[in-house]
Design goal:
Number of helices: 3
Strand content: 15-25%
Number of strands: 2
Strand order of the largest sheet: 1-2
Shape: flat
Distance between the termini: 10 Å
Order of helices and strands: HHHEE
Length: 88
Amino acid sequence: MVGEHASGQDHKEAVALLKQVDSKLSVNLSTVLSLKARTSYGAERATPNHLKQVELFIQAGIAAADVVCCVQLGEHAGGSRPMVVNPR
């Protein structure tokens, strides 16, 4: 995946793009988005265990980003958005 980012409203597009780079991180993102939906729009409340799980997923994402050889900034909605370039 070179210079791509999800541009639609559907988070599944971002999960699918991330899966091309790292399938475990895509599962993590999907899990976090599911938790967000359940706790933001449903009756479920976020628990300390949920927050710990999200923290671990964020740490995994940061660790993966540390091995990315190059990040290109792209313009999106008046600001910058990082895009993965040559991830492996």
